Amino acid sequence: MQIRGRQLAFTWIGCFLGAGFVSGQEISQFFNHFGLSGLLGQVGAVLLLSLLCGVVFSLSKKTGRSEVHEIAVPLENPLLRGVAVVVAISYMFGIYVVMCAGVGTLLEQLTGSYILCLVCSAVFCAVITAVAIHGMGGAIRVFSKIMPVLVALSLVVVAAGLLTFARDGLQFQPAATKNPVVNQWLLAAVTYVSYNFLSGIGTLAPLGTMVRSPRDIREGVLLGGGILLAVSFGIHLAMAALPVSTEAELPMLYLAGALSPLLEGAYAVVIFLGMFGASMSVFVPVPQYLFRFPRFQRHPVLVPVALSAAAFFLSQAGFSDLIGTIYPLYGFVGFLYIAGILAHAWMTRQRRKTGGDHGTNQ
């Protein structure tokens, strides 16, 4: 399967426009309470995230490697690559758990019914499982369809929020669940990049081998980075226009509800699409890695079903608590992956200069 720049853009931003992002919960915890420094950190984070994605796509295209451990570990070391796979899979599964929790939180905030939230979370997991069974090609096609809708709806609500609530100015205040691990704006920004990058690496790694040309990589990174920056910046400012929104589990849904029931419904769709996209990006690669082993290959349906069932039960821990615990913890681990990928990119470039690289990782 070959993809164009536009498909690449909507696929890679789909890895990051998840429930934590579009709901405002991530931005509230990692950026909003730092004021102008938080805005600067957020812009820098999006730019760095875009650059790192570009590095992964180019490295994958040049080397023909499409799996996390092959991209993140430049040395042919089975032990290191094995550890890299285990850590990446555990984190991607953890993000899937967060998305499942987000679905329940969304519906409970809208309806007040805990039973309905359990039922819909279970249905959500079943749909994601069906997509995972069809592999990466199906996920890319879904991303190309749902991400434009998500972006358009989110920008409409952001614009309405700013026009309505920003008349009295913007106020930046500490998030209700501020994490002490990221209590400095620069550290928060770098940690944000690290855990987001690690959560998406399972989907990002194979994309480079699917892109038609380096030009499509450049177009995809620029388009995706511009969209990601516009949405994140808008959400940040919208919450600053209505600071009380940061006290809610889903701040942007609260803001949309303060505008009108219609916009609240529209933003509920945004959050759901974000959850769906992020869940695809982190869950689809997990069974694919497990299928490397013959024991799991014999159960192509049972494996993703069992994983989704486990995620459903673990998701009952709570949405904001999971974001505040899982994300920062793996954020520090993500630094190692970023360092390995940058080292791999540098080594590949040096080999190409000396004529020692011909599309493989020796």
Query: What is the makeup of the main sheet?
Result: none
Overall helicity: over 70%
> How much of the sequence is in beta strands?
under 5%
**Total helix count?**
16
Overall residue-averaged pLDDT value: 84
| Low confidence ranges | 357-362
Structural class, from helix and strand content?
mainly alpha
Q: What is the first-to-last residue Cα distance?
A: 26 Å
Give the tally of β-strands: 0
Radius of gyration, whole Å: 20 Å
**Shape category:** globular
Order of helices and strands: HHHHHHHHHHHHHHHH
Account of the protein in words:
- With 362 residues, the protein is mainly alpha-helical.
- 78% of the residues lie in helices and 0% in strands.
- It has helices at residues 5-14, 19-22, 25-30, 36-63, 68-72, 78-111, 114-133, 135-165, 185-210, 214-241, 251-259, 261-283, 285-290, 294-297, 302-314, 319-353.
- Helix 6 (78-111) crosses helix 15.
Please render the helix and strand layout as text.
Layout lengths: L4 H10 L4 H4 L2 H6 L5 H28 L4 H5 L5 H34 L2 H20 L1 H31 L19 H26 L3 H28 L9 H9 L1 H23 L1 H6 L3 H4 L4 H13 L4 H35 L9
Helix pairs in contact: 1-8, 1-10, 4-9, 4-10, 4-16, 6-7, 6-9, 6-12, 6-15, 6-16, 7-12, 7-15, 8-10, 8-12, 9-16, 11-12
Summarize the structure.
The protein has 362 residues and is mainly alpha-helical. 78% of the residues lie in helices and 0% in strands. The chain has helices spanning 5-14, 19-22, 25-30, 36-63, 68-72, 78-111, 114-133, 135-165, 185-210, 214-241, 251-259, 261-283, 285-290, 294-297, 302-314, 319-353.
